[in-house]
TrEMBL record, chains A, B:
InterPro entries: HTH_LacI, Lambda_DNA-bd_dom_sf, Peripla_BP/Lac1_sug-bd_dom, Peripla_BP_I
MF (Gene Ontology): DNA-binding transcription factor activity; transcription cis-regulatory region binding
PANTHER family reported for this sequence: LACI-RELATED TRANSCRIPTIONAL REPRESSOR, RIBOSE OPERON REPRESSOR
Pfam families per record: LacI (PF00356), Peripla_BP_1 (PF00532)
The protein's name in its UniProt record: Rbs operon repressor
Domain HTH lacI-type residues, every copy: 2-56
DNA-binding found in the keyword field: yes
This protein's UniProt keywords: DNA-binding, Repressor, Transcription, Transcription regulation
Length: 328, 328
DNA sequence: TTGAAAGCGCTACCAC
DNA sequence: GTGGTAGCGCTTTCAA
């Protein structure tokens, strides 16, 4: 690996000059520029990012903190963030907080120690101390906070839509999954659905659930044991919806005739389920991209039109809900 | 952010001493150690990893290159790698090569420029130049190479098993999906299945397929159009299996009575499909962990028992294959 | 327009 | 056992 010294020697100039043409800063003669650039090419010189970072106190790295990389929703977010960052010549250190605050703190530490220029975090603890007094900006993704800029899906309306669509299609005894109590996004969609349910003439049960794979299956089994008469489920995310769909078919219910199911997120696999899952779509990829853009704006001191960006969600009608009569 | 100087001043010693107790190198008096450690705590000092890295030419970062973060198999690998690294106090820069060689090269560049201590790569281009002449070790994951250390599933036997189990359960006209031709792992499992099919009295068709979401669905549709009489499908991975399962049910085939389907990978969602997918399980999480361990051994110059670690695969019997008669 | 030199925070050598 | 100091590769004054 050649250094700036080698380039300077090769081009017959000083390292200062090389640095200047490298960064397009200060003056430098066209001819000198040319010679330097030739030397760079010849030696295949790439600046040492670590040395740069040490001096500038800024790397080209952005920290991305995910709560659970196994939930397909998050890789989708990550892709959006990554693609946008890549276009800006930036790179990602991805940390998987695994829903554990200690891990989260550790990763933030690492991000700091590596001079990241910013953090995008999709974890559940936006209001906790590790995010305070940071010397670089933090953007929350898929989380609502007032303390920080953020990008998130319109959970309240999503929940409302889910309830509206399932009621409209004739479910009368609905199970409403609540999702983790500490998760604002889960609670938003829950509240939306709750409000809609309260305003209509249907019975419903509220059931606590987690967002993880392992819990989803167990929850599905107990759900049907405890409430065998339900004819509609509003799930807290697609993972739970998949588990419920699966269990419903296993015990011989017909979908969507006996039971309608509606998910949340629209992860890529939802349309590969059978029957394909009706769900509330969050534009995960775009949310990731927006968060990256927002972070870049903050870093570059560009004016912010809005600090908290709410993304619209849409009902995706597939086949776990019944067709609605045309003349509703 | 306090520096080593601040700590030295606080403890009334030199920076050299602080560095020594920090790294447990060279001599230092117990009392001095204590004082230094107190100063560290008091100032909440964390060493600047960038400065360390500049001097040592080694960071605490490991590059992880994934071909497609959206395929749930890879996050699973990533988790294994991450958990092992985390226990070693190391962190990951994750790059998503997106099956594009340019992106791959760019990420390797970034890894270099950030002084990673090693790379774990799950991409398809192990034999290409970017991996040559690197100053740090590379371990390939989910890829067979002789040029580098690697950890991979036993694809040949996996394919063989898949064919064996489906034939044993009575399929007579089988579609064998081939997976991407350039992907060694895909070809291994293909060859295994092929050999097994050739040694038995069944008809079969070989069909090319990709590993991606988007292609899987189209492929499934044409598959049944072109070969309406098949009664068994050996898929190249679980994603394609899901697409086929889905399409088969859509056109009214009964699973597993009319058609048996067997997948490959055992991604977390496979058991949530309906019917739950029979598949060949690759121990993705463990493979990730093994790859991380292997890399660490190489970095620490520990003796290697084996440079290429093949992990066993197992048949997971779920419900897209028929029950076998007890007295086979 | 260019170059010499200081210094980012750290480690390791060498002298005491 | 401990401290002074050079230097990792880079950027940025400041003088020339």
């Amino acid at each position: 690996m050649s250094t700036i010294r080698d380039v300077a020697k090769e081009a017959g100039v000083s390292v200062a000059t090389v640095s200047r043409v490298l960064n397009n800063k200060g003056y430098s003669h066209e001819d000198t520029k040319k010679r330097v650039n030739e030397a760079i090419k010849k030696l295949k010189y790439k600046p040492n990012e670590v040395a740069r970072s040490l001096f500038n106190k800024k790397s080209r790295l952005v920290g991305l903190l995910l709560p659970d990389i196994r939930n397909p929703f998050f890789p989708e977010l990550a892709r959006g963030v990554e693609d946008e960052m890549q276009e800006q010549g930036l790179h990602l250190i991805i940390g998987n907080a695994d829903e554990k605050p200690e891990k989260e703190i550790e990763y933030i530490q690492t991000f700091k120690q590596n001079n990241v220029i910013g953090i995008i975090s999709a974890t559940n603890h936006a209001e906790t101390t590790p995010y305070k007094n940071l010397s670089f900006p933090v953007v929350f993704l898929d989380r609502t906070t007032n303390s920080h800029p953020s990008v998130y899906g319109d959970g309240y309306n999503g929940g409302k839509k889910a309830a509206y669509e399932i009621i409209r299609r004739g479910s009368k005894r609905i199970a409403l999954l609540r999702g983790p109590a500490e998760l604002m996004t889960a609670q938003d969609r829950f509240k939306g659905a709750l409000d809609e349910l309260c305003n209509s003439n249907v019975d419903f049960h509220v059931i606590s659930s987690s967002f993880s794979f392992d819990d989803a299956e167990k929850m599905a089994i107990t759900l049907f044991e405890n409430y065998p008469d339900i004819d509609g489920v509003i799930a807290s995310n697609d993972l739970s919806a998949a588990a419920i769909l699966h269990e419903a078919l296993r015990i011989g219910r017909s979908i969507p005739n006996d039971i309608q199911i509606i998910g949340y997120d629209d992860i890529p696999l939802s349309r590969l389920l059978f029957p394909p899952l009706s769900t509330i779509r969050q534009p995960a990829y775009d949310m990731g991209r927006e968060a990256a853009k927002l972070l870049m704006k903050i870093i570059n001191n560009k004016p912010l039109l809005q600090k908290n960006i709410q993304m619209p969600v849409t009902f995706i009608e597939r086949q776990t809900t019944r067709k609605v009569e045309e003349n509703d």
